[in-house]
Amino acid sequence: MKIAIPLITATILLFSACSKKTSETPEPENDFTKITMEQFQEGKMALGKPLKMAFENSFQISGKIVSRVDGLAKISIPIEGFIKRIHVRKGQSVKSGEVLFEIEGSALIELQKAFAISSAKMPQLQSDFERIEQLFKENIKTESEFMIAESAYKTELANYSALKQNLENIHLSISDIENGNYASVYQIKSPIQGQVVDVQTTPGQYVSPQSSIAEIVDARKKHLQLLVFENDYSKIKSGQKVAFKTASEKGAYSTATITSIGKILNMQSKSFDCFAEISDTDKSKFIINQLVHGQVILNTDTVFALPQEAILKSGNNQFVFVKAREIGNELFLEKVKVRVGRSSKNHVELIDGPLNKQILISGAYHISSE
After folding, report:
1. Long-range interactions of 253-256: CB distance < 8 A, separation 24+
2. pLDDT (tens digit, 9 = 90+) per residue, 341-355?
3. pLDDT of residue 22 exceeding 50
4. Distance, CA of 202 to CA of 113 (rounded, Å)
5. 111-144: string of b/e by CB count within 10 Å (b at 16+)?
């Protein structure tokens, strides 16, 4: 008994000493990153929680800016001739009905001559037809005589009407020509308002009706032509929104609305042509044939998200720094693995990770990820 007491006392003293030593030892900090408040401020760091944001389900597309059918005019001439005068130049803006070219040549003179001759014949042929028609009704003229008179009159009437229409199409005065006052030139006028994007002729050049001599584009009437691949075809519908930009654009996406979906697969590109109407506020900054890329927005849902700069990578993993505690002038951050999804507007969807904790959302790149 006398020996046991010192042993127990020694044991108690030893346990007490160990307990005292353990309570005085600081908690290990190997799993935390420590920064001072001065470092926090100098690095322009910020803490925050994941926010609920609207994220869009979409698929990628490419395409180009094209003119609508009613916004593009290829200029040709109705009657062959020579270019006497060019009133416009490439890049010039024109109004509908503005004179572009003046054309001269023997074909113009021959057309007016043919019309004048036909016009001179018409009164006599009409009078003969009406007289013989009346006599035929009175059984004085035979049916054969009536048919000959009718054929001659209606044949010339068709010829007269066609010649007259051709002259009216080039805006010449019918009454002047009937009186023998022939025009030496006729004018080609712009059928639309727009900008002259090409002039393909020079003064004195002979031009046939099959030749295109200029091209005009109305910048207000352009839309988006999209290439939609076969795998995505079932997803696209009229009325869906498109977010797009050119390769050189750094700012926000422009918007358009799907208006037409092609029905024929291009076997070479394995894609369909679809068209989208560009919003009025964005039309003016694009030019015809400019290439674009973007996405067709299918639907929108609400998810938790973090700024992209809050997500750091380590190998194949992503992680964030979470505030563990704050002691005096020091902040302790814990490296926490997360799982992310879609990106939108400089934010990343947080699929799996801390939702109710303070996360380093700005300035995380200042901290080593190792």
Report:
1. 253/294, 254/278, 254/279, 254/282, 254/285, 254/286, 255/279, 255/282, 256/223, 256/224, 256/282
2. 888 778 898 999 898
3. no
4. 28
5. bbebbbebbebeeebeeebeebeeebeeeebeee
